[in-house]
Amino acid sequence: MPNSANAKKTLRQSQDRRQANRAVKSALRTQIRKVRKAIAAEDVETSEAEFKLAVKKLDKAASKNIIHPNAAARTKSRLSKAIKEAKS
Description:
The structure is a single chain. With 88 residues, the chain is mostly helical. The protein has three helices and no strands. Helix 1 (5-40) packs antiparallel against helix 2 (44-63), helix 1 (5-40) runs parallel beside helix 3 (69-87) and helix 2 (44-63) runs antiparallel to helix 3 (69-87).
């Protein structure tokens, strides 16, 4: 437990940031799941539309350091590859 006032404030700030980051990560995972579900159903149009939203959320999360930029790039690349394979 924090003893000083400064440590107590830092703990509060950390908890607030953790909650905000978890909400962003959760929304990101949900969006990626929608893309993968559309790919599995071989619905190319829906998967492309959901992919656009996923890219936007991935880029925003990466820019705020909620996820690593390389992780965002890797996820985008893998989803894009899966959509291309579903097209052919």
